[in-house]
């Protein structure tokens, strides 16, 4: 049990990347439209985020410097500001969507409109950040989010033709009347979600919150190599369920209720209860992750005191940023914008933010001033460079593909 | 005797400043004041926002720069927000549970 | 003088040829004793880069992926060390030196610590 509690930072971080509100819907939507023909992207994403999260965690354990410190140091104030604006906007848009997502989960459970739940959801997120200890927050929402494993269990219960699913997964091309452009668009969306920048912001800052030192390198690695693959597994299970249930019937997925349907088909009302709690925990966890990341990035760029390891009054500017972001989230959602649609637009900003976030990590993970003798080996550097190239290609292609496909329509 | 070699831009510029007394984060190194007319020419001060930190206050240059902050007004904005906003919310001075 | 102002200054040699731009300042901690009982950071020389660019990403230290380093260096061109005693005059936007271009030492030859 103690071992499990030690890896909740990795699990919570991964939940924000792989099964937050936007991804819950995207995974199901992709499964319904492409079957498992895009599953390989999730695998590519898991490897990439493991690689870079491990580097950022190692830098934190060895030097105490979180990711945005590195971005400012290596890119300077100007390019650093560009990275800040882009990644802050991705994170803020995701936060807006998550607050909406928490409210949507309550709407599903209660029948009362999500617009009423939304201010309460934002208030709850703020209260947790204001009053609850970091380790407790990460354990509660990391472990509760694991309830989404019910999708994996449901997939077995639905008794799919495993051979056919595997066959789909090895055929890397679009099917039916889907074109290459939409295939590539959703591929980039899945890849971008897996490597979304706030994961490394949250993970590395979380390492500082947990007061990691060089003795915690082991903990850091277990967090990475258990947390992120678990996130990928959840993502694939949701996709698999949709591929089994919706693809043959030709049903399009667009709402959270449809995402939950396969579990309800497999387990009835109990399944619905479990999946609702899991979705609530995952979206709430992602809301905490993104709200904190909004504060982390700005404070680390400017050098302000940040973090939950000091009393709120000692990090006053950090807490004000979080409060302002939550207020902005509520105001945006009050315009009745679809929370799920909001995350789609974050792709545009993610495109700029991705290479600028990961380049400084790769450079510093090689610098003995920061990591002593724990520098990257040649293999990690080669794979790191390969991913940097992938991220750059994805970031260049994202916006044109979004326009061509009308955001995957 | 040869001293430690540092590069002004690489090792000082844009680094995190840490208060030696309590470990709090107090800003970034936004610029470095060089006294090029002195003999020998030296680093005279670090600049953070509007505040000038004399070279004699630098305690350590590692992955962050540790300084002694006595008498420097590095917390001006943080204190302003603390007094006008954060302190008005209940629980601002308590550790989390 | 402020560091951010000095960075990017053009460097002109004794014959009036442009060598490149100032990319960093090399400091050695062996200056006069300060009140903190530490040695001051003495300005030891300038790091000059052929193609004007003020950010080296720390690559003068020769760490990191070989390919990335090569890409950065291809963009920077030559990277040289200009000792402080060879700096003749610093005016608005330019640094004039008493040395000639081909006398400069590549930074790679310098002791890193």
Helix and strand arrangement:
The complex is a heterotrimer of chains A (409), B (97) and C (113).
Chain A: H1 2-6, H2 8-18, H3 21-34, H4 39-63, H5 67-110, H6 114-131, H7 134-145, H8 150-157, H9 162-170, H10 180-194, H11 197-209, H12 217-245, H13 256-302, H14 316-334, H15 339-364, H16 368-371, H17 378-404
Chain B: E1 5-7, H1 8-12, E2 16-19, E3 25-28, E4 31-35, E5 42-48, E6 51-54, E7 58-61, E8 65-67, H2 76-84
Parallel strand pairs in B: 2-8
Antiparallel strand pairs in B: 2-3, 4-5, 5-6, 7-8
Chain C: H1 3-6, E1 10-12, E2 18-28, E3 42-49, H2 66-76, E4 79-83, E5 87-91, E6 94-97, E7 105-106
Parallel strand pairs in C: 1-6
Antiparallel strand pairs in C: 1-2, 2-3, 3-4, 4-7, 5-6
Written overview of the protein:
The complex is a heterotrimer of chains A (409), B (97) and C (113). With 409 residues, chain A is an all-alpha fold. Chain A has helices at 2-6, 8-18, 21-34, 39-63, 67-110, 114-131, 134-145, 150-157, 162-170, 180-194, 197-209, 217-245, 256-302, 316-334, 339-364, 368-371, 378-404. Chain A has a single domain, classed as Amino acid/polyamine transporter I (Up-down Bundle). In chain A, helix 5 (67-110) packs across helix 11 and helix 15 packs antiparallel against helix 17 (378-404). The radius of gyration of chain A is 20 Å and the shape is globular. The model of chain A has no long low-confidence stretch (mean pLDDT 93). With 97 residues, chain B is α+β, with helices and mostly antiparallel strands. Chain B has a single domain (8-88), classed as SH3 type barrels. Chain B contains two helices and eight strands, in the order βαβββββββα. In chain B, the strands form two sheets. Chain B has a four-stranded mixed β-sheet, with no helix packed on it. In chain B, strands 4-5-6 form a three-stranded antiparallel β-sheet, with no helix packed on it. Chain C is mostly beta strands. A seven-stranded mixed β-sheet of chain C has the order 5-6-1-2-3-4-7, with no helix packed on it. Chain C has one domain: PRC-barrel domain (SH3 type barrels, Roll). The model of chain C has no long low-confidence stretch (mean pLDDT 83). Chain C contains two helices and seven strands. The interface between B and C is medium-sized, with 29 and 37 residues. Chain A: This is Mn2+/Fe2+ NRAMP family transporter. Chain A: It comes from Kribbella rubisoli. Chain A: One of its GO terms (biological process) is iron ion transmembrane transport. Chain A: GO terms for molecular function: cadmium ion transmembrane transporter activity; manganese ion transmembrane transporter activity. Chain A: InterPro entries: NRAMP_fam.
């Amino acid at each position: 049990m103690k071992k499990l509690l030690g890896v909740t930072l990795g699990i919570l971080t991964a939940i924000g990347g792989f099964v937050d509100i936007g991804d819950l819907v995207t995974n199901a939507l992709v499964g319904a439209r492409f079957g498992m023909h895009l599953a390989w992207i999730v695998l590519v994403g898991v490897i990439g985020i493991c690689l870079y999260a491990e580097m950022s965690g190692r830098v934190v354990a060895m030097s105490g410097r979180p990711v945005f410190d590195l971005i400012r140091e290596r890119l300077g104030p100007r390019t650093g500001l560009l990275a800040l604006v882009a990644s802050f906007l991705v994170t803020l848009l995701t936060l807006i969507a998550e607050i909406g997502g928490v409210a949507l989960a309550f709407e599903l459970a209660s029948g009362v409109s999500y617009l009423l739940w939304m201010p309460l959801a934002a208030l709850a997120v703020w209260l947790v950040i204001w009053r609850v200890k970091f380790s407790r927050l990460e354990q509660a929402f990391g472990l509760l989010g694991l309830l989404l494993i019910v999708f994996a269990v449901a997939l077995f219960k639905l008794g799919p033709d495993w051979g056919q699913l595997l066959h789909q997964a090895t055929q890397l091309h679009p099917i039916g009347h889907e074109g290459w452009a939409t295939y590539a668009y959703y591929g980039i969306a899945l890849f971008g979600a897996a490597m979304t920048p706030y994961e490394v912001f949250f993970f590395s800052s979380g390492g500082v919150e947990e007061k990691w030192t060089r003795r915690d390198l082991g903990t850091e690695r277990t967090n990475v190599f258990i947390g992120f693959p678990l996130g990928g597994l959840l993502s694939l299970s949701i996709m698999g369920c949709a591929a089994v249930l919706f693809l043959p019937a030709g049903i399009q997925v667009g709402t959270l209720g449809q995402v939950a349907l396969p579990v309800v088909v497999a387990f009835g009302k109990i399944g619905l209860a479990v999946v609702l709690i899991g979705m609530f925990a995952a979206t709430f966890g992602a809301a905490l992750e993104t709200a904190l990341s909004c504060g982390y990035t700005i404070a680390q760029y400017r050098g302000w005191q940040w973090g939950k390891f000091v009393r709120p009054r000692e990090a006053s500017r950090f807490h004000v940023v979080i409060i302002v972001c939550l207020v902005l989230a509520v105001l945006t959602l009050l315009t009745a914008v679809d929370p799920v649609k909001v995350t789609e637009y974050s792709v545009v900003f993610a495109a700029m933010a991705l290479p600028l976030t990961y380049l400084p990590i790769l450079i510093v993970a090689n610098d003995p001033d920061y990591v002593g003798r724990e520098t990257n080996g040649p293999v990690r550097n080669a794979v790191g460079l390969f991913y940097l190239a992938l991220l750059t290609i994805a970031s260049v292609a994202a916006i044109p593909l979004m326009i061509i496909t009308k955001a995957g329509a | 005797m040869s001293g430690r070699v540092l590069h002004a831009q690489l090792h000082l510029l844009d680094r995190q400043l840490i208060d030696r007394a309590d470990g709090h984060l107090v800003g970034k190194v936004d610029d470095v004041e060089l006294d090029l007319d002195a003999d020998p020419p030296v680093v005279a001060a670090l600049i953070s926002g509007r505040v000038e930190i004399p070279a004699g206050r630098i305690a350590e240059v590692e992955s962050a720069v540790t300084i002694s902050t006595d008498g420097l007004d590095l917390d001006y904005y943080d204190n302003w927000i603390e007094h006008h906003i954060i302190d008005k919310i209940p629980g601002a001075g308590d550790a989390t549970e | 003088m402020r560091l951010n102002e000095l960075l990017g200054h053009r460097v002109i040699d004794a014959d009036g040829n442009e060598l490149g731009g100032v990319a960093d300042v090399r400091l050695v901690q062996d200056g006069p004793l300060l009140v903190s009982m530490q040695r001051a950071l003495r300005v030891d020389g300038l790091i000059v880069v052929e193609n004007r660019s003020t950010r080296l990403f720390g690559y003068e230290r020769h760490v990191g992926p070989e390919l990335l380093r090569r890409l950065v260096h291809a963009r920077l061109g030559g990277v040289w060390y200009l000792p402080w005693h060879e700096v003749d005059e610093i005016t608005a936007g330019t640094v004039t030196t008493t040395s000639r271009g081909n006398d400069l030492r590549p930074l790679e030859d310098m002791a890193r610590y």
